[in-house]
Amino acid sequence: MRILLVEDDPDLGPRLARRLAEAGLAVDHARDGLEAADWPDLGAIAVVVLDLGLPGRSGLDVLKGWRSAGLAVPVIVLTARGSWQEKVEGLEAGADDFVVKPVRSEELVARIHAQVRRSQQAGAPVIRCGPFALDPIARTVTRDGQPLLLSAREYRLLELFLRRPGHVLAPADLLERLYPLAETPDLNTLEVQVSRLRRKIGREAIRTVRGLGYRFEP
Questions:
Q1: In whole angstroms, what is the distance from residue 181 CA to residue 189 CA?
Q2: Cα–Cα distance between 111 and 117 in angstroms, integer?
Q3: Domains of the chain: residue spans and CATH
Q4: Which of 92, 76, 106 is closest to 7 using CA atoms?
Q5: Which regions of the chain are under pLDDT 70?
Q6: Which pLDDT score, from 0 to 100, does residue 137 have?
Q7: Which phi and psi angles does 8 have, rounded to 5°?
Q8: Which residues contact 164 (CB under 8 A, 6 or more apart)?
Q9: Whole-angstrom Cα distance, residue 191 to residue 183?
């Protein structure tokens, strides 16, 4: 499960990212509000942990911008004060939960998992692309209405392709999204995963773009 941590503190940010990674989460780390506001591929993020006191652009403004753009990803706000006025502003901007600093990593991990469960219960649209249909809640995939039996990693890889059909996905980006930061897979590992997925969905669906990566063409 991939999360985005938005925290500018040079000590807290890396320490918190490391502890979340140790808990089995794949962590992206943005260090200011401008970087967070322009973060690519937010659709692949399960939960955002967002500090309010950010340089460049405040966390509250970033959150408002995301919600105005229709981003529905759960957002847990980190705040140093935790006043009721700040919570009201955050809720009105679209926050889903609040954590007051300092926070134990165990509590934050529990809150992240709670938000994922809540978003799953609320439902998510089926991703349809060509003959494929992926249900993020049931974690099932069909091709022409017939179920595909995929491993957890094959499912995740196909989901990444289905969310960006026609785009070239770089191997480094795929590895980053498939494996927790604590693991260090290499390109050969990715090639094996792609090969296995091709055998199950059809070799023609995943094209190799020499020197760049892979492109999904259903």
A1: 15
A2: 10
A3: 2-122 (3.40.50.2300), 127-216 (1.10.10.10)
A4: 76
A5: 81-84, 120-124, 137-138, 180-184
A6: 66
A7: -95, -15
A8: 41, 216
A9: 16
